[in-house]
């Protein structure tokens, strides 16, 4: 039988906590995630630029310095200016952190702040002009960005972002792999040839499912809706079914040669550990 080589990467997203309990939980989560050999840990930023440097940058430094893991810093174009970006990039370079996820950032109440960077591609171009050796990632949307008028324009703008210097893309969460495969094909037709990491957020309770439906513009396939319905009065069974669904999704993606899986951990290591235990043989881990 022909030997198959699978070299997908595994990475995780965490967010800066805003309470003492949250800090304690994240400390344990990061210790646990370290054991799962992530290719990097990405650190989100708030959509209001609340203490961006005190939260996101500080946590990324902790991941890099204390845990000795590659850190990726989320940077919101809508909430930073050129002077601040230059200063932060210099600081990151001194620390040997060279991965940035350049985002437009969520606009709150449809009110876009005055900014030096209108789109993520503007920030990407600026980062690359300042630090050509930095690895810049960008966000992408298998089910189309909610503000986009249509799929074609969304892909066209994504191509502009890649041409501006984006080295890698990370998807918005999705629950239907067919949507992802279609998107991959559209990227390939548009000559978008950078690695695309699949963003996966296991749904382990009803609250999370409602959040995804309301805020993430990701559709839940019939199969998933029937799981939600079947286990509406049984949270433990719902959690197990949600994890099994995510594992199934990941195994399918990895066996179809996805570049990487990026897990939205919600700062919870139990879910990540469970997924790792059931899928680790499918990943390539650096020594
Ligand atoms: P852009 O690439 O700038 O695109 C935004 C919209 O503008 C799209 O509809 C695009 O088609 C359109 N567009 C782009 N260029 C042009 C152009 N030249 N002319 C006209 N239209 C154009 N948000 C946070 O606040 N903090 C986070 O930490 C965070 N992390 C994220 C991580 C991932 C992996 C993903 C997928 C999203 C994340 N987000 C985060 C959400 C993100 O900020 C929002 O989805 C935001 O609305 C769009 O960001 P973007 O970088 O995709 O923007």
Automatic annotation (TrEMBL):
Pathway assigned to this chain's UniProt record: One-carbon metabolism; tetrahydrofolate interconversion; Amino-acid biosynthesis; L-methionine biosynthesis via de novo pathway
Names of the cofactor(s): FAD
Pfam families documented for this protein: MTHFR
Family: Belongs to the methylenetetrahydrofolate reductase family.
InterPro entries, per the entry: FAD-linked_oxidoreductase-like (IPR029041), Mehydrof_redctse-like (IPR003171), MTHF_reductase_bac (IPR004620)
Protein name (record): Methylenetetrahydrofolate reductase
EC number(s) on file: 1.5.1.54
Enzyme class (EC, first level): oxidoreductase
Molecular function terms from GO: methylenetetrahydrofolate reductase [NAD(P)H] activity
Keywords recorded for this protein, A-Z: Amino-acid biosynthesis, FAD, Flavoprotein, Methionine biosynthesis, NAD, Oxidoreductase
Record carries keyword Amino-acid biosynthesis: yes
């Amino acid at each position: 039988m022909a030997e198959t080589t699978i070299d997908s990467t595994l990475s995780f997203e965490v967010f800066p906590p805003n309470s003492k309990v949250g800090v304690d939980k994240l400390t344990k989560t990061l210790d646990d995630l370290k054991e799962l050999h992530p290719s990097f840990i990405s650190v989100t930023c708030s959509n209001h630029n609340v203490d961006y440097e005190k939260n996101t940058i500080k946590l990324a430094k902790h991941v890099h310095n204390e845990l000795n893991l590659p850190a990726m810093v989320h940077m919101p174009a809508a909430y930073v200016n050129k002077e601040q970006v230059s200063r932060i990039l210099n600081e990151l370079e001194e620390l040997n952190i060279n991965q940035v996820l350049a985002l437009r950032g969520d606009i709150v109440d449809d009110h876009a702040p005055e900014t030096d960077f209108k789109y993520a591609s503007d920030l990407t171009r600026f980062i690359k002009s300042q630090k050509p050796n930095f690895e810049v990632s960008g966000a992408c949307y298998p089910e189309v960005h909610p503000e986009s008028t249509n799929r074609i324009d969304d892909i066209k703008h994504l191509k502009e972002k890649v041409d501006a210097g984006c080295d890698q893309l990370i998807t918005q969460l999705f629950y239907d792999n067919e949507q992802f495969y279609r998107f991959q094909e559209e990227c390939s037709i548009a000559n978008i040839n950078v690695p695309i990491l699949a963003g996966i957020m296991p749904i382990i309770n009803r609250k999370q499912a409602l959040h995804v439906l309301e805020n993430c513009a990701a559709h839940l396939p019939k199969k998933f809706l029937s799981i939600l319905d079947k286990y509406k009065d049984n949270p433990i069974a719902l959690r197990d079914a949600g994890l099994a669904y995510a594992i199934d999704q990941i195994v399918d993606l990895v066996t179809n040669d996805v570049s990487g899986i990026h897990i939205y951990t919600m700062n919870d290591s139990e879910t990540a550990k469970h997924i790792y235990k059931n899928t680790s043989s499918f990943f390539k881990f650096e020594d």
